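Q: what does this look like with zinc ion bound?
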Amino acid sequence: MPPDPLQLSAVELVHAVRSGDLTAVACTEAFLARIERTNGVLNAFLAVDREGALARAAEIDARRRSGKPLGPLAGLPVGVKDALCTADLPTTCASKMLAGYRPPYDAEVVARLRHADAVIVGKTNMDEFAMGGSNENSAFGPVANPWDTSRAPGGSSGGSAACVAADMAPVAIGSDTGGSIRQPAGLCGITGLKPTYGRVSRRGLVAFASSLDQIGPMARSAADCALVLEAIAGHDPGDSTSLRDEVPSYTRALDKPLTGLRIGRVPEHFAAGLDPEVARGVDEAFAVFRQLGATVHDVRLPHAHHGIPTYYLIAPCEASSNLARYDGAHYGHRAEPGKGHRAEPTNGHRADSGKERDGAAAFESPLVEMYCRSRAEGFGPEVKRRIMLGTYALSAGYYDAYYAKALRVRRLIRQDYLDAFQTVDLIGGPVSATAAFPLGEKTGDPLAMYLVDMYTVTANLAGIGGISFPCGFTAGGLPIGFQLQGPALAESLLLNATDRFQSLTDWHRRRPPLAV
Amino acid sequence: MAAAPSPADVAAPGSFTTIIGLEVHVQLQTATKLFCGCPTTFGAPPNTQVCPTCLGLPGSLPVMNRHAFDLAVRAALALDCTIAPFTKWDRKNYFYPDLPKGYQISQFDLPFSSDGFLEVVDPKGAFSRRVGIIRVHLEEDAGKSMHDEAAGTADSRIDLNRAGTPLCEIVTQPDLRSPQEARAWLNELKLLLVYLGVSDCNMQEGSLRVDANVNLHIPRPDGSVAKTPIVEIKNMNSFRSVERALAYEAARQWEEWQATGRELGSAPKQTRGWDDPAGVTRGQRHKEESSDYRYFPEPDLVPVRVSADDLARARAAMGVPPAGLRRMLAERWGISAYDADVLVNQGRELVAYFEELAGLVGEGKVASNWMQQDVLRTLNERGGTIDAFPVRPAALADIIGRIAAGDFDTSRGREIFAEVLASGRTVADVVASLGIAAVDDDALDALCRELVAANPKIVADVQGGKEQAAAGLIGQAKKKNPNVNPGKVRAKCLEIIRGL
Amino acid sequence: MSSASPSLSRQDVAKVALLSRLALSERELDHLTGELSKIVGFVSQLADVDTSAVEPLAHPLDAQNVFRDDVVTPSLARESVLRSAPRHDGESFLVPAVLGETGAA
Ligand SMILES: [Zn+2]
């Protein structure tokens, strides 16, 4: 009797498909059925490609039967964050602005997944344009945390995290600009890796903040992440910021013993604000690493506490420019003339004369009106807030005080890491200050929401890699996440250390008691 | 950078000096766009030379075209600019439908080159001007928006084929002092860029665009100088328009100054568009906020470092610029500066033709005369390029050589040139078919003796000291045998008469 | 920038909204004025960091001189280009009249 695909790891699934123990079609069907049962509750997928996925799976099976070679992800169902372009599926970034938008090309990562014979089952929900830490900023509704559906899964890759946690797909692709892979992975009890900036091509990833964005794998274990990263990492001549360094075999470096590994612990991480239950879980994780032969040392990251204000200048500045293209001219949402906001008086857009027609505010031209109204209708509140913030911080007279200042602090933050990695190999700590928080808890307070990324943004600012994985549960049954950060291109070590941790613990094997 | 004004630059009381600076955009002669592989061919149907990158589609990324960067460096070197060892690109943010990303990738605070000059010398000596270059930078072009009012539609049409085409922006110091100088300088710039293969500088196709900044310096009786507000003129679509627009604008500013006395600083810089058919500049609407471009470093591109080796290689690949070529031709072939100017201004291919010809003929002045009087004139009449010109240097040198050898005279040589041009046959062939065979010495001797015997009046005149009378014998000789060489006839006849 | 929290006026926010091409209702404008003031006040804490000897770091990569060859690659078919356009005439994108607007060079 063939194995139950939902019970297998990604590594086992691929092995089963390649060996013929399981057909790719059976595997795909099992996950599609699971998606059908759970998506109504979780809203993790914005689009499911049932037909495409099954056709692809059948094609892979046919190739196997005829003895042709199969790729390293043969038959592996993958959920792809809706921020990655897919030529055969809508790509919306969870924004009304791009509702129904179908790109004419595949993102490089999507192309590599297809090339590796993965089966893309659908596009996962997210915070609009990846801006948010709870997935509540999706124009198509929030995602529920599979561990407690009244709570947020984290964000912005909340759909990808929830779909893996709920067995809707064995692996998913996320993107991480300030913590958007690691934080939801932590809140959903899965493993998520943000690689070094430039390790994975950004081509086809809808840009949020170009100098911070990075795509990475989300899965149940480090071993599964390694399998996927190996397939998607590597130089892309179409991305000028893609690293040329050779991709090592991540899957083969997993079981190296950790004897002598030096792990840094940042005392400031345990200051006020860190939930005591989370603190305890994190400390227990350090104990596990000691048990594995690693040593733990206190290290200082003196500027890390400036991470959030630095990030909330740099990211919105870049975003304000990256999102200028959504103006209703060439694609995406365009406001209907003479409807919507027109009857509502608008600020500052009046022509000098101030004359108004039919009670509608006069814009200086029909074109400016189309721009302003299309963008007002197409973007949600958080996206507007960040565009406004970035535009303000880059505008004449403020550039030096805000944007340039943040870039200087960014260098200090990166230098802290370079210094710390002189004495330790990796740095460990919490992913977020609390376990999953209730939906709606922070939606009224943007600043409180911004703070959810306080332990993760510094890795993006420095361009280094980080991995998040479960290290315990709260009394209320919510996963607690542990984060490891490493120097540039230390993905092998991050995955190796996590895999060793997971060889001694079974937090990552727990499944949410999801009633569907 | 600008040199101290020469006396000629300082206006006499009651007049003014026109101060002109130019901003030139040239499209670089690459096969593909600056950041994507779309072709840059002019005239393709709308929106057929576009891809995710130049459409600014979500997720698309730019990668710099190496050839575009090399061409830009070549242009900057030819303009004597300093090449920055480190350069980066910035985003210039503004909304416009021909700009699909909502920003233009350009260069702001660290352009790849700055601080150069290009001199223009009037070959007739009317002026000589060294114009400082403030900066040259590399940026992407926008698409085209078209509004057809006649079609009665409220919409504009957007074609993004041009979006992303590589552009060099060249900004000069306000060193030009007249509309004529501005036109001449632009001609020199165009010549330079075409010579170097940087751009075809075709203004009709928009591959060279010029904006001009102009104001007047007006001396007051007390010795101080009044400066009129600077006006930027746009929409000039030929060098002739530039000259006309500047002349119009100088006159307009003079009148306005006399009427209002308004000076620089009393009003923001005004933009005026040139209306060519009407021959006037018109004020354009100015948007206050549009000037806040919120430049910041383009995070999708990495900076470029240029090493000394890179520069040496770029210089080696550059070739001799027009100014150097003029000097070289004058020196090597002993032709006048004016002649060198005429030849060089026709382009590198024509200079190559000339040099080959002069080498074969062994005499620059003669070769230059033939180039200007025959080759260039014919080329202008027939059109086409010198490379496709049917009379190749070797053939022309053959004709010139035969004239020098006394085989026939220059006017006969021109007939042969015309026949070679028309028929495409060899010189030898044409000479033979026209029956132009050298007349042998015995035949010449017989003919001359016959003429001397038949013209006692001329003989008497010559014997009386009027040697020019022998010309009458030459005319008769040519009637009897068109192939005779006039010089030889003359010499032979004089010899016979002296021996009488 | 001083460490005193700068606050944004309604007029500042209206100006930024126009620069951002976002039509805001009066209510949204009021709301955003408060929110942005708070956020700007928060990020202004960076003013207290001594960065006098620190160069800006715009990008985490040290890479430079990334080029591609000047080789033509296929462009998109026009129908796939215009497929997503809100308005087009089969050849070009259509947008409300650009007359009266001055595009920058
Ligand atoms: Zn293109």
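Confidence is low (pLDDT under 50) at residues 1-8 of chain B. Residues 441-498 of chain B form one domain.
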